[in-house]
Amino acid sequence: MAFGKHNLEPQIVEEETDEENTEETDVVEKIENDDEKNIENIEKSTESISIQEGVAETNEDDEEEFEEVGYDDRDMPISYQATLKQHSRLVNTIHIDPAGSRMVTGGLDHEMRLWDFNSMDDTFRSFRTIKPFEGYGIVDAKFSLTGDRILVASSCQSAKMCDRDGHTICDYSKGDPYLRDKKNTKGHTHAIMAADWHPFDGNTFITSGMDSTVRIWDVENDKSQKSIIVIKGKAAKRPAVSAVAYKNDASVIASGSDDGTIRLWNAKGPFVVPIKNKMAHEADKYITSLSFSLDGNLLLSRSWDNTLKVWDMRNFNDPLFKYENLPNVFEKTCAMFSPDNKLFMTGTSAKKGSGESGRVIAYETTTGQVLNNIDLADGSVVKLYWHKRLNQIFAGSSGGSVAALYDKERSHKGVLCCVKRHFTSKIESFVSADKKVYAPNSLPLFKEQTPYSLKEKRAQERYNYAKSKRPELPNEAKTKGSKLGDAYTQHLVQMLRKEAYGDESDPRAALMKYAKMAEENPEFVAHAYKRTQPVALFETGEYTEFEVKRHKPE
């Protein structure tokens, strides 16, 4: 996907209002996209921008100044696009380590994926998939300043610290939801909605949640937070803190809640009353993103009221720029500054079933003019990340894909390394199981004894008395190779029995010894037959006629 240079021709319409005599300028921009071959001419949609009086007046002189010192859209790395499709649902967070070698993404599919640009090919597959919180979507996942740790926050009450390979280091404590005073809790009692690292202290990070608190944590202490800020709304309401951000010099903490209020806190405390408290957006609308500029003078705020506002920290009463009609239906829709602070951008949501796609809209910081308008095909644009070292823009969408925008001349490494590394499939040889395999060498006749098997065979033959031709070992217990048993004892017992009772191997001879004794002294069964059969009758082998008929087979 290639993007050509966009020529901006702003049309200005001036209208006078009563009482305050303010001037509102409606700028309608027609963005023509001409590629190198002049094949396609795409007319972009119009954008309405309301700019306050005295901040940015646009006339012919300003247009000439814009052409001379303005930001050139060709400097944006948007010439080519690569799509990383691995998540199955909305991508909430994208972050890359400072070296630009690894990327972490997370979404509502409960998965956190790790990507390695140095080993990934043009198929763009993550090398590791983790579910840090089973059943909970990933809200934020960010590398530390050194890139050796990953802060992971989900929609449950606990945050997690992982190493750069995704292995868990520690889980931070949850709070007791039954305690009314949130200052006495040791962790979040409701879902976490945002998390961020300290700008230069690698041992400190911050979280905010639906329990109306902002908590500052020490990395080494997983038992309780270091400090806590309790947000109190009007009429004793407890608004959910949906966005939180550190100023780049770590002097201010900005929090945005669902009552439409932006609160600025002194990062050193005490966290009792905010420095500034501004009703910035509509009530009952989540503030989905807060982002400070590089110099800390500007603050971006994005909300569910479909607006993007730019605030001057030196004059926090009214917004510097206000952009309306920017659809936003997701809790993590992002707004951010570029690494060089020359422009800022945000993503828009697409209406379900409308056939439209989300857009990435870039604005110039100094003039507030629309610089670029990029359509992305895969649903709404939720998360944006621009890495300074790689000079590549990553956009997470509601369809689960991550679009990587880059330029072959201005971008470095990152996705460029992957598109040059083509995937090669390995063809593995296989044998069909339906065919018979004849291997005559596996038969016992053709087998050759290997040195190892021959050694085992000889060791076994050594214990075989017949093959080794050696006498049996004496009957010594607990001796290797000795023959245990009582053969000699049995032999002595048998010899003594023969001497006492004689050889009884022939049963007939043993009975005949008692034949003469039975005739002389009939004391066994003779008394029973003394009257009925005094003379014993024995089998002679001869049969009478009656007995022959009885025994004749039928």
UniProtKB/TrEMBL annotation:
Residues 1-64 are annotated as: Disordered. Residues 27-46 have a biased composition (Basic and acidic residues). Residues 12-26 have a biased composition (Acidic residues). Signal peptide: none annotated. Transmembrane segments: none annotated. PROSITE patterns: WD_REPEATS_1, WD_REPEATS_2, WD_REPEATS_REGION. WD repeats lie at residues 84-125, 185-227, 234-266, 287-315. Keywords: Repeat, WD repeat. It holds the Pfam family WD40. InterPro entries: WD40/YVTN_repeat-like_dom_sf (IPR015943), WD40_PAC1 (IPR020472), WD40_repeat_CS (IPR019775), WD40_repeat_dom_sf (IPR036322), WD40_rpt (IPR001680), WD_repeat_GAD-1 (IPR051858). GO terms for cellular component: nucleus; site of double-strand break. CDD domains: WD40. This is WD40 repeat-like protein.
